[in-house]
Amino acid sequence: MALTGTRHEPPADAPATAPAARGKLTPYWLLLPGILWLLVFFAAPLVYQASTSVQTGSLEEGFRVTWHLATYWDALTEYYPQFLRSVAYAATATVLCLALGYPLAYLIAFRAGRWRNVLMVLVIAPFFTSFLIRTLAWKTILSDGGPVVSALGALHVLDLTDALGVTEGQRVLATPLAVVCGLTYNFLPFMILPLYTSLERIDPRLHEAAGDLYARPLTTFRKVTFPLSMPGVVAGTLLTFIPATGDYINAELLGSTDQKMIGNVIQSQFLRVLDYPTAAALSFLLMAAILAMVTLYIRKSGTEDLV
């Protein structure tokens, strides 16, 4: 007599096992620390600043929310020169960083050979020094009577820059040129690193193929290298322009009252004048202006898929 075994199958509508459920939630648990960080250190201060920007009062009497939106218009009409100056300085520094950083990134990616790591260390070496100390060093470099100013004066370069209005009185310090030089130096690594990353990913065989098709080096760069490096160009310009627009250290140490940027105004309103609503309104106006310019730039460059 044969015994037949019976197999009990779980019902079709049985709930998923606990390990499977936990596996589906794992990505969300991994995102939780980042989400909490953004909520505590970005979203909450942003809401607080938004509330501060529509308050009225004084430090002695206290501030209270009155939804005084005219603060935004008053701040913009009073400090629009600093807004325009910040955009002009940041845009100039970004263009200079691109002009200086692209050849260097190209050299490291395609021509450095065994010196590649050494050059990369030299690029990131300034990060080992405080931003403030680096800017103070430029104050010494560009000081009156220093070797740089003396050389520029001997070459009559300062005559040209004085005529252009970027220097004044045969001196560089406390002029727009000094502020732009400081911005360019301090943010140059932020341009080089994305450019190098983008260029390093380009397959060298594409250059060989272009040469086999009788393309000249300039044509190869224009048709192959530069289009393929556009993600690095976009990332580098954004990483340079955005922090340079809100920077205030370079204008504070290397410029004068005529070179104050919007970051200097916000810092002064917060810490000296103690006009918190105006400072908060200026911060939101700066953020909105940068967001609008970045969005327009990304659309015009055709790289919406990068962000």
List keywords for this structure.
globular
Structural notes for this entry:
The chain is mostly helical and 307 residues long. The chain has 13 helices and two strands; from the N terminus they run H-E-E-H-H-H-H-H-H-H-H-H-H-H-H. A two-stranded antiparallel sheet has the order 1-2. Helix 2 (70-111) crosses helix 10 (230-246) and helix 4 crosses helix 7. The chain is globular and about 75 Å long. The model has no long low-confidence stretch (mean pLDDT 88).
How much beta, percentage-wise? under 5%
| Outline | globular
The pLDDT mean sits at: 88
- Identify low-pLDDT runs: none
- Helix vs. strand class: mainly alpha
Rg estimate, integer Å? 27 Å
- Output the strand order for the largest sheet: 1-2
Number of strands: 2
Order of helical and strand elements: HEEHHHHHHHHHHHH
